[in-house]
Amino acid sequence: MARSRLLPDNFTLTLVAVVATATLLPVSGDTAVVFGWVTNLAIALLFFLHGAKLSREAIVAGAGHWRLHLLVFSCTFILFPLLGLALKPLLSPMIGTELYLGMLYLCALPATVQSAIAFTSLARGNIPAAICSAAASSLFGIFLTPLLVALLMDVHGDGGSTLDAIGKITLQLLVPFIAGQIARRWIGAWVGRNKNWLKYVDQSSILLVVYTAFSEAVVGGLWQQVSWPTLAALVFACCLLLALALIATSLLGRWCGFDLEDRITILFCGSKKSLATGVPMAQVLFAGSSIGLMILPMMLFHQIQLMVCAVLAQRYARRPEATVPGPLTE
C-alpha cells in the first residue's frame, strides 16, 4: 500500500519521537556526559567523512564562493538583528521584556555548524560552501555576537571564553575534516561508493544533537520557568522569526541568481542559529542576570529549526538528480 504524501517521512517521525523521549526521559548527570561525548564523536565522524569525500578542488571552489558567504553572513548578522528589532512592537507585549531580550540575543548568534552542514548534505546542496560558510560564521560569531549584544541590548561581557571556543571549534570540526582530507587518498573511493548509506551518519548526528540538547533544556527546568500561555506565545514568536528568515534567505538566494545547490546552502546556513555557541556565551555575557529566561528562546528556536529544516531537507533530497525546482524556490 502506497504511503500518503500527507504523512511525514520516517526521519521526521523519528525526530519527533526523539524530542518526546527527551521530554519524558531526559538524560542527566553522568549519562548526559556520556551522551555528550557520543554526540561529539558522531559530529567528528561526520566531518571526517566529509573531508574524505570532498576533493581539494571542490573545497577551494567552496571557500572562494565569496558572494554566497557574504549573503549568508549578511543574513546571520544583519538580517536577523533587523528582524528582531522590527518585531519588537509585536513580541515585547506578547512574551514580556525578558523573553524579548532573549529573542534579541538569539538574533545576534552565529549560525549552526553541524546541523547546517548535515541538512545541506541531506538536501544535496553545495556542501563545500556550507562547510566553509558555517565554520567561518561560528568563528567570527565569537567576536561579532558580543558586539551585536552590546549594540542591541547594552550588555557587555568579559570575553574570557573566546580562546576556549576557538579551540573547541578547531578540535571538533577542523581537525577531523583535515584528517579526512589526509585519509582521502586511501578511503576516498570507498566513501564515494558507499555514500547512499553513509547519509545515515548525517541523520544520526542530528538526532543525537536534538536529544542531548533537548534533554539539557528539560533537566534545566524548561517547563517550569514560564507559564503555558507565555510558552505558547514564545513558540509562536520563534516560529514567526524562523518563517521570516527562511522566506528571506530563499528569496535572496533566488534574486541574487544562485543555482539550486547554492540556494539550498544559503537556506540552511543563513536561517539557523547555534545553541552550542549561544549557551556558553550567555554565561559570560549575562553573568548575574536571569540566564534561564535569556536562553529559553534560543532553546526553543533550536528545536523548531531542526524539525522544520529536517522536513525541508527531506523534500529537497527526494527531487530527481536533474531537477532544478525546489519547494521554496519555484
Coarse structural class: mainly alpha
- Kindly give the count of domains: 1
Q: What is the CA-atom radius of gyration, in angstroms? A: 19 Å
How large is the share of residues in beta strands? Answer: under 5%
Helix % is over 70%
SSE string = HHHHHHHHHHHHHH
The CATH architecture: Up-down Bundle
Low-confidence stretches: 156-162, 323-330
Question: What is the CATH class?
Answer: Mainly Alpha
Helical region count?
14
CATH fold topology: Na+/H+ antiporter like fold
Largest sheet: none
The average pLDDT is: 80
Q: First CA to last CA: what distance? A: 30 Å
| Overall body shape | globular
Query: What is the strand tally?
Result: 0
Give short descriptive properties of this protein:
single chain, mainly alpha, Na+/H+ antiporter like fold, 14 helices, disordered C terminus, transmembrane, transmembrane helix, membrane
In short:
This protein is mainly alpha-helical and 330 residues long. Helices cover 78% and strands 0% of the residues. It contains 14 helices and no strands.
